[in-house]
Amino acid sequence: MTSLPLIRRSFAELVMLHGREPISAGGFLARAEALARELPEGAPVLNLCQDRLAFSAGFAAAILSGGYNLLPANRLEATIDALRNAFPASIVISDRPLAGFSGRVVDPTAAMARPGTPSGVPAIAADQLAAVVFTSGSTGQASRIDKSWRTLHDSSLINLAQLDPPAGARILATVPPQHMWGLETSVLMPWFGTVTVSSARPFFVADICRALEDLEEPRVLVSTPVHLRALAESNLELPTIERIYSATAPLSRSLARHLEQQTGAQVVEVYGCSETGCLARRQTARVSDWQLFDAFELTPDARGVVARADHLDGPVRLMDHLEFRSRDSFRLLGRHSDLINIAGKRASLAELTGILLDIPGVIDGVIFQPPETDAGPAPRLAALVVAPNLAPADIRQALGRRIDPAFMPRPLKLVESLPRAETGKLPRQSLLQFFARTCRQPG
Amino acid sequence: MSTEQSPQERELAELIVSSLNLDDLSPEEIEPEKQLFGGEYGLDSIDALELAVAVSKQYGVQLKADDERNRHAFANLRSLNQHVQSLREQE
To answer: Which residues of A touch B50 (CB under 8 A)?
Structure first.
C-alpha cells in the first residue's frame, strides 16, 4: 500500500503565523495530533472553525484519525443539517459556540493548547479519502467530489511548482479555508512549500492593509476579484506586495493592471474548479491566454472539454467553453449558460428559478445573469417576478431561507408578466430587452 | 428609541441604496434599528465590503472588522451611523 507524508517541511520551519505567534511545522503537527486524539477513528468531520489555524489543524486531524473532511458549499443552517443527516456518524469541530445546535461539538481550543511532541511525519495511505467537497450552493442537493490524500498531496506539489510563490513568502488570504481555492492555497500550500500563511482572515480593505503591513516581506496576497476591486478603489496606501493570486471569478485586465501599478505585485489569475483544483494560470495584466499546468491534459470533444491528470480519480468535464491556442494554452470563452459561479460558489440558474417559483404567491418568475457592462460582468444575478400579492421583501425573505446569499438576485423587480414567447419559452434576447426597459422605470 | 431616521442616518441610508444598487428599496424604508446585514434587506458580506469602500469615499474614514466593537457597528443603520460619525471625529 502506497503512503504519502502529511507534510513535507522540517519541524523547525514556519508554516503559519497565528497573530504574532509563529507556528512551526512541528508545532502544527503536535496540535493536529492532539486534536486527532479527540476524534473518533474514521469519522467524517464537519469542520466549522473560523480561525485558519484551528481549521487547518482540524483538517489534518480528520485525516490523521483515519477519517475525512466534509466541506459544505456554504454554512446555511439548512445545508449543515442536510449534511449531518446524510452523514449520521459525522462529528462537528467548531472554535465558537453554534446557536441552536444539538449534536456533539468538539472545540479544538483546549486540545491545541496542550500539544505534545510529534514523533515524526505521519504517513497517510495514498488512497485514503481525505475530503469530500460539495459544490452546488443553489439547492440542498449538492454534488459530491471525493478527494483522496494522493489527489490533495500531488495537487499541492503541482500548485507550488506552477504558481511558484517566492521562497519564504508570507501569505495573507482573504478567502475562507473551506472552499477549494482557500484550501489549496491557505491550508495545504504551507504543508509542502517554503511559505508561511497568516491565520488572519481580514475582511475590509483597511483590515487587509493592516494585516499585510504586519507581515514580513516577501508578501503574497491570495484573494478574489471582489476583494481586489475594493482594494483598488479604496486608494489606501498598500505595502509592497510581491505576488497577488486571484481566482473564483473573472478578473478584468484593467483591474489587474491597476493592482500591479498600485502594489508592485505580479498579479496571477488562476483557473480551476472544485473537481480539478487549480489547472491554469495567466498574468492577466499582460496576456489573454491561459497557461495549462504541466500535469493536466485537456481534450476537446463534441460536448466541450475534458480535463485529465494522473492525480485525479477520473476525467472531469469543464464548465467553460475553451478555445485552444496551442496544446497547453487556451482562451476562456465563457460558461455554459445555465451554470454560474459567484464568489467561488456554483449554482444552476434553472434550479434557482425553480426555488423562486416554489414560493407561495409567485405566479411566474426568472432568475438570470444580467448582461456584462463596461465595468465587467454584473456582480449579481437579477430576478423578474410576477407575484401580485407579495412585496419584494417577502420574496427576498423566502429566497434567503433556501439559497446562498451570493446568489440573492438584485435587482429583484415585480412585473405584471414576463415576455414569454407563444411556446412558453423565455428567449434570452427578449428577456434582456424587457429587463433593460423595466430597470429604466422608477420604483 | 426613535424609529425615525435622523438627517445623518438618512444620508447614510441614501449612500447604502445608491452604492449597492438597491433599486427595489428606498432610503426611507431602511429602519434605523432593524438588522442591516443578513436580514430581510438581503444584504450580505459582499455588500458590506462595497459599502465600506463607498463610506471611505464619502466620509473619508475606513471601516474595520478587526474587533468585536467594530463588527457590532454593522448591526443596523443607527449603529453604523454612530460608528462612522465617531470615526470622523477621530480624524
So the answer is: 230
A331 shares a domain with A242:
yes
- Interface residue of B41, B53, B61, B87 to substitute, partner A, most A CBs within 10 Å: B53
Chain A residue closest in CA terms to B55: A234
Shortest CA gap B50–chain A (Å) = 7
Cell of A435: 429587463
pLDDT digits (tens, 9 = 90+) for A381-403: 899 999 999 998 889 888 888 88
Q: Using CA atoms, how far apart are residues A206 and A227, in angstroms rounded to an integer?
A: 11
- Report the CATH number that the domain containing residue A12 is assigned in CATH: 3.40.50.12780
Question: Is residue A408 over pLDDT 90?
Answer: no
What domain range is A133 assigned to? 3-335
Helix axes B77-90, B7-19, angle to 10 degrees: 100
> Where a domain ends, among A318, A335, A352?
A335
Statement to judge: residues A239 and A361 lie in one domain: no
Partners of B38 on chain A (C-beta within 8 Å) are 405
| Percent helix, strand and coil across chain A, each to the nearest 5 | 30, 30, 40
Which pLDDT score is estimated for A443? 44
pLDDT at A373 over 70: no
Cβ distance of B42 and A233 shorter than 8 Å: no
| Chain A residues touching B64 at Cβ < 8 A | 204, 206-207, 210
Question: At CB < 8 Å, which residues of chain A contact B?
Answer: 202-207, 210, 226-227, 230, 233-236, 343, 379-380, 392-393, 396-397, 399-400, 405-406, 408, 410-414, 439
Per-10-residue mean pLDDT, chain B, length 91: 86 92 82 86 81 90 80 89 91 73
Same domain membership, residue A80 and residue A102: yes
Which residues 6+ apart lie within 8 Å of A321 measured at CB? Answer: A304, A305, A332, A333, A334, A335, A336
Rounded-to-integer distance, Cα A161 and Cα A321, Å = 26
Same domain? For A292 and A409 the reply is no
Residues A198 and A161 in one domain: yes
Contact A439 B23 (CB under 8 A): yes
CA A28, chain centre distance (Å): 23
Give the residue on A whose Cα is nearest the Cα of B44: A405
Q: Please identify among residues 19-38 of chain B the ones whose CB lies closer than 8 Å to any CB of chain A.
A: 20-25, 38
Q: What is the pLDDT of residues A89-123, one digit of tens each?
A: 999 999 988 776 777 789 999 888 888 888 899 99
Residue of B nearest to A403 (CA): B42
* Integer Cα distance of A198 and A422 in angstroms: 58
ipTM: 0.79
Element (H, E) at A15: strand A14-18
Domain boundary among the residues A335, A356, A383 is at A335
Confidence of residue A378 (pLDDT cuts 50, 70, 90): low
Domains of chain A: total: 2
The pLDDT confidence band at residue A278, using thresholds 50, 70 and 90, is: very high
pLDDT of residue A374: 56
* CATH numbers and ranges of domains, chain B: 7-90 (1.10.1200.10)
Per-residue model confidence as pLDDT tens digits over A340-358: 767 666 777 878 888 898 8
